[in-house]
Amino acid sequence: MSGAGEGTGGGSGEARGAELQREIERIRGDLARTVGELDRRRHALTDVPGQLRRHPGPVVLLAAAVLGLAAGAITWGVARRRRRNEIGARLGRLREALERMVAKPNRVATDLGVGRKILAAAGTAGASLLAKKLVARALERRPAPASETD
User: Fold this and answer.
1) Per the domain annotation, does 5 fall within a domain?
2) Domain range for residue 118?
3) Helix crossing, 56-85 with 87-103: angle to 10°?
4) 97 and 125 part of one domain
5) How many CA atoms lie within 13 A of 48 on its CB side?
6) How confident is the model over 47-72, as pLDDT tens digits?
7) Number of structural domains, the chain?
8) Where do runs of H (alpha helix) occur along the chain?
9) What are the CA-CA distances from residue 30 to residues 8, 124, 143, 150 (Å)?
């Protein structure tokens, strides 16, 4: 009895296996087409000359907007600098500085602290040594003056 059942079950098992194999092949084909389409779209998206040909209007608008922002920023900076350099603005900043000085005189010339003083002294000494070495080297390379023996 078990032999007859195995034969029938084996036949439907093979058919089921073949059906699954076809389904796997169909899914694999769909996946390959999808990946191919995604790759094509990726190439189209990153193709800058192609994008410029397909969408010239938005590209021109974007370029104009960027140039407009740059020109506006430059114009604003120049105007701001001119306003800051006017005599009235300079006198206003001087008045504010004097008001701060009168309000908090202890903050006008604050002490740097020991650490900063040591650092400043070391920097000054290093710059002095460097200057001496550069002058000495420049003097060594200088040709000797011609003697007048006539």
Assistant:
1) no
2) 110-140
3) 60
4) no
5) 0
6) 989 888 888 899 899 999 999 999 99
7) 3
8) 2-46, 48-54, 56-85, 87-103, 114-141
9) 33, 75, 85, 104
